[in-house]
Write a structure and sequence with these properties.
The protein is of the alpha+beta class. The chain has a single domain (6-315), classed as Roll (2,3-Dihydroxybiphenyl 1,2-Dioxygenase, domain 1). The protein is built from six helices and 16 strands. The chain has helices at residues 16-26, 87-99, 167-177, 238-250, 303-306, 309-315, and strands at 6-13, 30-37, 40-49, 58-63, 76-84, 104-110, 113-119, 125-130, 154-164, 181-186, 196-200, 209-214, 228-235, 259-260, 264-270, 276-284. The longest helix is centred in the N-terminal third of the chain and has 13 residues, at 87-99.
Length: 319
């Protein structure tokens, strides 16, 4: 049993149309699945990824039209990273952000890699990270119909940063239960704060890291549009996922139990700081109900919701 790396990150948007425009036209990602929140099917769930929607490349958004402003703070998934192939790609993106009025900072070194911090139209905290020196989990393949040249395209998810109050408890969950190992540390961008601790799993590298930022000076985050709902970690298959559910139960860790999301199978837990962490299988995949060349073109519903299609479509605003 080994967690292979990051599977997906799911965030919140208040505007699915604007979200679709930003992540496809500006960021060049492929919409690989246009579906609904399976627990609340009156809202969209949009999945963006590489050409095939490979696990580890997937950034998803729940649309909550009335979602309020995010008040940033503690006990949150405070940064989502997206991988690009090399340092030169960051120069391309810096110029692109300037041209398209995307708020961004300067290119900086972080944990031995060059990075470029930016936000989307709702203040989602994002970071491009260069794979120039990456020797760990391989990235995906950018979509060949993307408006971004393939040599500069996003190849997957990079490290997620968790800003938390009780770092020891989360570190214990990652290492003792999930099998992560501490890799190193780097300086916080906030003066006077402890170093950020890097944990990695599996083959390691940019696609298999979680960074923990220990903060005692922040109020709890109040999530809204532009915040992250949860991160998911890669498990090889359903058999292994069931073994993970057993392990969580054996250690007395509250969890959702086995959940069938149709495109993958999952179990959900809360870390000691209240952050939702999902374990998700690599398959069956997004081409289960759509051909690869037509991913994301129509509203896809899992079988248990298909009988409600007419009602669901009436509630959704066309994209």
């Amino acid at each position: 049993m080994e967690i292979k790396g990051l599977h997906h990150v799911s965030a919140i948007t208040a505007d699915a149309k604007e979200n679709l425009d930003f992540y496809t036209r500006i960021m060049g990602l492929r919409l690989v699945k246009k579906s609904v929140n399976q627990d609340a099917p009156s809202m969209y769930h949009l999945f963006y990824a590489d050409e095939k929607g490979n696990p580890g490349t997937d950034l998803t958004f729940f649309e909550i039209p009335r979602a309020g402003q995010t008040y940033r703070g503690n006990n949150s998934i405070s940064v989502t990273s997206l991988r690009v192939s090399n340092d030169q790609a960051l120069q391309y993106w810096k110029s692109r952000f300037e041209e398209m009025d995307v708020p961004h900072e300067e290119i900086k070194e972080q944990a031995g890699r060059l990075t470029l911090s930016f936000t989307d139209f709702e203040g989602q905290r994002l970071l491009l990270v260069s794979d120039e020196q990456n020797t760990g989990v391989a990235g995906g393949v950018p979509w060949d119909k993307s408006p971004v040249p393939s040599e500069y395209g996003i190849v997957g998810l990079g490290p997620s940063r968790l800003t938390i109050e009780n770092i020891d408890a989360t570190a214990s969950l990652l290492t003792t239960i999930f099998g992560f190992r501490e890799k190193g540390r780097y300086a916080s961008a906030t003066e006077g704060q402890p170093d950020i601790v890097v944990f990695e799993t599996g083959q390691g590298g940019t696609g298999a890291e979680i960074h923990l930022e220990h903060r005692m000076d922040l109020p709890p985050e109040r999530p809204g549009r532009g915040s992250v709902h949860h991160i998911a970690l890669r498990v090889d298959n359903q058999e292994e996922l069931i073994a993970w559910v057993d392990k969580l139960n054996e250690h007395g860790i509250p969890n959702s139990g086995f959940v069938d999301r149709f495109y993958f199978r999952s179990v959900y837990v809360k870390d000691p700081n209240g952050i939702t962490i999902e374990l998700a299988t690599d398959g069956p995949g997004f081409d289960t109900d759509e051909e690869l060349e037509h991913l994301g073109e129509s509203l896809a519903l899992p079988p248990f919701l298909e009988k409600h299609r007419k009602e669901i479509e009436q509630r959704l605003q066309p994209l």
